[in-house]
Amino acid sequence: MIQQFIFAHPKPGMSEAEFQRYWVEVHAVRYASRIPQIRKYKVDTRIARPGDPADPLWDGVAEIWLDDEAAEVASLESPELIQGARADEPNWAAFWRTVVLDTTAHPRLPGPPETRDAAGVLLLVLTKRREGLRLADFRAHLLGPHADKAEALPGLRRYQIGLVRDAAYAISESPLDAVEQFWFDDADAVDVAEASLPHALLAADWRLCAEPRWLHRMLVREHWIIGPELRPYPPA
């Protein structure tokens, strides 16, 4: 199954709060959720943290689950996307700043079952492998020694690594290679984890395998639109 991440930024003149509200309450419900090939769908809205830039790269991310490449192509050709979701994009998003990553999920710390109303926060960490490091070696390191260090973070409830799929490298390099997802009870728990020795070891490992200038962090709150159970496809 493809887990797609769509990172987005508000259109000029729209505040972050307006952007996030429109995405969750209007675009996701009226347009994107009607694309029949989407099996699960949630919108993650950025939580501002001390030290964040005044104009962050992205203010939220959509997570979309599709069965496979054939379903993805069908979704891109669907009238629900072309006449609905895509036509609505200029109303809220700076589409020229959007980044889309198709990944394969590798759960490492499963955690409790996901529910629509679960409390907590999600920390996203996006990485690009260090220059000169082969993609296969980067992936093996991330799923092996790196993941072992990540799982030692205090307060971590769930952990998953999304590796960008091979198709992204068919013509040129993918802008990023992986999306790590760290679930915690709240923002204070993230602060505690980031001040810990296990995080210092994890940060050192990021410096070993990833390009520091292309390492991005975003703390978000999750909003389920479809799911967490899979929606039937074709629709019943």
UniProtKB/TrEMBL annotation:
<dbReference type="GO" id="GO:0016491">
    <property type="term" value="F:oxidoreductase activity"/>
</dbReference>
<dbReference type="InterPro" id="IPR011008">
    <property type="entry name" value="Dimeric_a/b-barrel"/>
</dbReference>
<feature type="domain" description="EthD">
    <location>
        <begin position="11"/>
        <end position="94"/>
    </location>
</feature>
<dbReference type="Pfam" id="PF07110">
    <property type="entry name" value="EthD"/>
</dbReference>
<dbReference type="InterPro" id="IPR009799">
    <property type="entry name" value="EthD_dom"/>
</dbReference>
<protein>
    <submittedName>
        <fullName>EthD family reductase</fullName>
    </submittedName>
</protein>
